[in-house]
Amino acid sequence: MTSFHCYNQKQKNMSGILDDLPGSAVNLTASFNVIETILNNSFAHLPNLEFLSLAQNNLTSIDPLAFQKLYHLKYLNMSFNNLSELSPLLFEDLHNLTSLSLANNNLTMLPGEIFSNVANLEILNMRNNHLTNFSMLIKSVAALTNLKFLDLCLNKLTSLSDLNTSLPQSLKVLHLCRNNLHTLGCRPSLFRFINLLDFSFNSKLPSIALQGVDLSNVKRLLLQSTSVKAVEFLNISNINAGHVAFSGMGLKNNTLLMDLCIFLRRKLKWIKNVDLRHNCIKNINNNTLSICPKIIGTLDLSNNELKKVNCLEFLNNQTNISKFNAEHNHLTLLPSCIRKNGTYFNSLKELSYRYNRIRSINRYAFSHMPNIETLKLNINNLAFLDRKALKGLKRLKTLRLDNNLLTDLFKETFSDNYNLQILNLRNNRISVIFNGTFMNLGKLITLDLGGNKIAHFQQSGLEGLKSLSKFYLDGNYLKQIDSSYYRAFQDTLTVLDLQKNLINYHSEVTISPFEKLRKLRNLKLDNQRNHGLVLLPKSFFKGLHSLKSLYLTNNHISTLKPEVFDDLKSLEFLTLDNCCVGVAKLRPGVFKNLRNLTRLVVENMGIQNFSKEVFGNLTHLRILQLNRNVMQSISVDALESLPLLQYLDIRDVPLSCACKNSLLQNYTVKNPNVQVIYLYAMPCQENKTIKFHNFDTRVCYIDLGKYMFFSTAAVLFVFAVSPLLYVKLYWKMKYSYYVFRSWFGDQWNRLREKEEKCKYDAFISYNFSDEEWVMKQLLPNLEGNGSSFKLCLHHRDFELGRNIVDNIVTAVYSSRKTICVVSNNFLRSEWCSLEIQLASYRLFDEHRDVLLLVFLEPISDRQMSSYHRMRKVMLKKTYLQWPGSDCTNPSQAQELFWNQLRRAIRTGSALETEHNETDEDFPPTNNKKEKLLSDENNLCLP
């Protein structure tokens, strides 16, 4: 971005405004600020500046080297300040400066050498200062060999004493108006190279002051409101009389006019332009101007007191006039000018009666000037326009009838104007366009009907407009957009203005009213009255593939559908400011097809969130105006998705000065490509005394080194402890893994529901080394011998092809009891360990007596120490010890063993009620480890 605008900044130092600007800046406007002083080298970091405006500040002083190193600067504007003096070194580095404005300051003089290094200066504006010494001024500008324009109006010059110093020969335009000149006092040759010389509004300047001054090269001399008398001056001057503007020279009556014409007739055969403005002329006799030289250009009688011009009889034989201007007079009527032998002004091309009091125009009012191409009748009181008033104007191209009181137009009104290209009827009182009104205007390009009372068009009201390109209908009373109106010019229309009508939609429409306007480039729908556009139908803009600009400002749209702008793929400018009701909920994708959009105005829409999903597709966006919305934060990701963004306006947005906006602060302050408007004046929402651009963000950033240290330490700790945990907690981890798998498969819940519908009486958990005992002892005694228990065994009842863990879980929860046949081999088996872990989990979780331990051989406490859950069961429950060969009576002891085991399988009491049972063979245990076959029975040794 190369252009920057810094208005209304509250910074008192220029550095506060300029420090954040990139070195690539070319154009800079820093106006309407409170800067009083510009310090040395204030612009040194902006070496590429070509345009610099410092107008409308409070500058009182500028340091000598303030503009140092601005070698490329071409335009410098320091007008409307309070400068009273300038340093001779101020413009030392401005070698390429071509335009300098110091207007409206308090300068009393200029240093003699101030322009010595700006030889390329062409335009110097010193208007409205306090300069008094003309000779010092000439001395200052003498070195400006390329100077073409010098404005010294509104100073305090009383004479033009030059002290033998000449103006630059390149100077062509010199304005000395509104001074206190009463004499010139200069050398005769001072103005010999001037083309336009302005002495106007020096009321004390007499004719004699110009005697002897060489004005032979002056092409236009302005003497309005001086004491110079026209004929007296022409008699003593060598100026070409045709180059004098006689505006405001007191030629208020016919006598003075005739004297002037007689003098001009003696000097000239023809004159190009006659300027008689501001002479208070009330009427002109028919033969007054006829004795003037032949006028071949413009006759200007504006700003006089003429009450009638009739049919221009007072021009009589001045038939070569090409332009007649009678603006700002007191004309009230244009009469009929039907004549058989009268004068015809065939050369007249342009006629202007603007700013009069014309109430009516009669038929054939312009028949004596048939070749008029431009007719200006606007800003009158015109209420009556005869149907044949414009008859005969077959070459008319531009017609201004705006700002009058017209109510009706008819088919005959424009019947002869078939070459008309521009018709302006704005701000009249037209309510209906009748059939055929514009039927003959096949070449009309621009039609302005804005500001009328049009509620509808008759069926063929717009027929005939085959070339219409620009159509203005704003400020009328249209309630709907009828596509049939545009039938005649649907292939040519490029601009359609429908602002300030009554257009409204409360429901969807299936056909777009603009669908056939294939070349439409500019569409305005702002400010619809009576609550505006409440609804934008999703197909409303269908077919507008060529549209470049769309205006929807100041409506009351309730919602913007994601599809509403889908067809506007060529759109470059969209304004939606103040268009919605309450908080606007912009849906993702609403701008998805607007990839060519360069400027988006969404001011005061109530936007809460500025997200990438909504605005991310605007890859060509350069200007974004978001001011007066309600979001407290703005996503930097969303802004960074706009790669060409140059101008961002977020004024009056309640941005929070919190960590969530820390990245936004950094983006707005340090992004050299995006100009954020009034950034340094934006306050924090929480505290208005703190500015958004410099609120403290240090607490928002994590100490990355500390974070990495702790993260690394944690990883190293995990790696160091993992082997130890694996050794010590191998079984617990293994168990937890299988429990998780079982829970993930929702096994637990399903099996708990089947608790009362068990498929087996007992699940036998054993090691394959003990399978002989299970098959020859356990199985016959529990399933045979009349016991009729149903047992679940690995090799017999597990489902083929199913995961073994799932089989084990199903077996444990499908059996009323789990019998663990414990031996040394059992304890060394991973699968056996898993089975007892699952069974014990069920025991302690459900408080059910579901686990029975049968020890085939003695197991020491040391061997049991690694099986925490098994030891916990043994401390709370009795367990069965298989009577070995060392028993006194093995057969009796085994018979007792099987009886107790059968009894234990049958019981279904909960763990907490177990201590209430009274059985002589199964006494209470008091939570101590006991053997079921006690020494008292003298059947088996401990």
TrEMBL record:
The chain crosses the membrane at residues 707-727. The keyword Transferase does not apply. It is found in: Membrane. Residues 910-942 are annotated as: Disordered. Signal peptide: none annotated. It is a single-pass type I membrane protein. One of its GO terms (biological process) is inflammatory response. Keywords: Glycoprotein, Immunity, Inflammatory response, Innate immunity, Leucine-rich repeat, Membrane, Receptor, Repeat, Signal, Transmembrane, Transmembrane helix. Pfam families: LRR_8, TIR. Residues 758-905 form the TIR domain. The keyword Repeat applies. GO terms for molecular function: signaling receptor activity. GO terms for cellular component: endoplasmic reticulum; plasma membrane. Belongs to the Toll-like receptor family. This is Toll-like receptor 21. It comes from Cyprinodon variegatus (Sheepshead minnow).
